[in-house]
Amino acid sequence: MEVRLTPEKEAQLAKLASESGRDADALAQEVLGDYLELHARLVEAVKAGEAAIERGDVLTHREVGVQVDLLLRS
Q: With bands split at pLDDT 50, 70 and 90, how would you rate the model's confidence at 7?
């Protein structure tokens, strides 16, 4: 697979790679890997939230306010 970058993004990548003493290709691989991992965790968190809603395992806005107040008072 080949990814085409805008000249601006390519310059940013080259600058970051240079500043960190790394190869631009390796840095791009790392950045993309980090993004994909973060995205996968986000998708799982959303699914977990949706499952909690379906189970009725949620707090109302008022209940959250009460919990926050209790935390701030302790």
A: very high
Residue 74 is predicted with a pLDDT of 81
DSSP state of 63: H
Does residue 31 lie in a domain region? yes
Residue 16 exposed, middle or buried by CB count within 10 Å (0-12, 13-18, 19+): middle
Q: Say if residues 5 and 13 touch (Cβ distance below 8 Å).
A: yes
Which tokens belong to 8?
């601006």
Which domain covers residue 39, as residue numbers? 7-73
Q: How many domains does the chain have?
A: 1
Report the mean per-residue pLDDT for the chain: 96
CB atoms within 10 A of CB 38: 10
pTM: 0.70
